[in-house]
Amino acid sequence: ETGVTQTPRHLVMGMTNKKSLKCEQHLGHNAMYWYKQSAKKPLELMFVYNFKEQTENNSVPSRFSPECPNSSHLFLHLHTLQPEDSALYLCASRPFSGGAGEQYFGPGTRLTVT
Amino acid sequence: GQQLNQSPQSMFIQEGEDVSMNCTSSSIFNTWLWYKQDPGEGPVLLIALYKAGELTSNGRLTAQFGITRKDSFLNISASIPSDVGIYFCAGQRQAGTALIFGKGTTLSVSS
């Protein structure tokens, strides 16, 4: 059982579309993360939010726009994506970003850009 | 940027066999984590290690934090079909810094 949920689980979008990914955590954590997972590559950290404030943007293109309205919810707004953006997008949470280790992941959204 | 070397890349074993995989780094880490990812799902935390030399078990899984603090090992004893998946190591250099992930070890178990 996971305390982190993500919707939708699968998404197919054209390059001119605008869509949003949603993440919700039920663990009472204060830090939330977006990762991109591509085949044969390590997980790539995209964004970090701590107490709703963005604390890290890992040189992510502006066509990805995160939003964190509160400590339990995290969104990733997508617009004018490229086919190479197709990947599994994972959300994770942790008690707070300044601590050690353990992050808990959601099931991911499988994104396909056509 | 910093990378972890995780090996082997893949393993094909028979049910009942023991499995070993490891992760190495050129830098010292304060935390090592091991995750398992099933197809179509997110990574699930298996074991967390916080001290050099620490040996921690979770059922048939045992992980160790290397004494040099530059490596970690995961062993699975008496493998079963549901052990199939991708196992990731992750390290953290110090509190508050980002996790760095290995590329994963894909485990296949035949019965």
Describe the model.
The complex is a heterodimer of chains A (114) and B (111). In chain A, the strands form two sheets. In chain A, strands 2, 4, 5, 6, 9, 10 and 11 form a seven-stranded mixed β-sheet that branches. Chain A has no helices and eleven strands. Chain A has 114 residues and is mainly beta. Chain B has 111 residues and is mainly β. Chain B contains no helices and eleven strands. In chain B, the strands form two sheets. In chain B, strands 2, 4, 5, 9, 10 and 11 form a six-stranded mixed β-sheet that branches. A five-stranded antiparallel β-sheet of chain B has the order 1-3-8-7-6, with no helix packed on it. The radius of gyration of chain B is 13 Å and the shape is globular. The interface between A and B is medium-sized, with 26 and 25 residues.
Q: Sheet bearing the most strands of chain A, described?
A: 7 strands, mixed
As residue ranges, the low-confidence spans of chain A are: none
Mean of pLDDT of chain A: 92
Order of helices and strands of chain A: EEEEEEEEEEE
Could you tell me the number of beta strands of chain A?
A: 11
Count of extended strands of chain B: 11
Q: What class, by secondary structure content of chain A? A: mainly beta
- Per DSSP, the total helix count of chain B is 0
Portion of residues in beta strands of chain A equals: over 45%
What count of helical segments of chain A does DSSP give? 0
Unreliable spans of chain B = none
Molecular shape of chain A? globular
Strand count, sense and closure of the main sheet of chain B?
6 strands, mixed
**Sequence of secondary-structure elements of chain B:** EEEEEEEEEEE
- What is the CA-based Rg of chain A, rounded? 13 Å
